[in-house]
Write a structure and sequence with these properties.
The chain is mostly helical. It has two domains: 59 residues, no CATH class; 34 residues, no CATH class. Helix content is 58%, strand content 0%. The chain contains four helices and no strands. It is elongated. It starts with a helix and ends in a 13-residue tail after the last helix.
Length: 101
């Protein structure tokens, strides 16, 4: 079965290459339309994002930084002080707010 398929594809290789190129072109055209239509303003995710922005005032990107220690916990004052100092260090023109545990 595979031998016959292989022989057919080799004997008609230019048709196979042409059909593959046409398939890729059509897939590329269709794929560009798919991603443009995902942002529905009446959709649930768009409404949730607008509500979060209105309630929380979030208009930029969020970044999450996790600080861990193999020997201490968050209740340790030295660890807490080190994390607090690290959170105060960023440029305040870029980082507008930090939230900690």
């Amino acid at each position: 079965m595979f031998e016959r398929l292989g022989r057919t594809m080799v004997s008609r290789r230019w048709w196979v290459i042409g059909l593959a190129a046409a398939f890729l072109a059509l897939g590329g055209i269709w794929g560009t339309r798919v991603f443009g239509g995902c942002d529905d303003p009446a959709g649930q995710s768009s409404r949730a994002a607008a509500r979060a922005e209105a309630t929380l005032g979030r208009t930029g990107n969020d970044a999450v930084a996790l600080y861990t220690s193999p020997s201490t916990t968050v209740e340790d004052p030295a660890f807490r002080c080190a994390v607090t100092e690290a959170l105060e260090a960023p440029n305040h023109d870029v980082v507008t707010r930090t939230v900690t545990y």
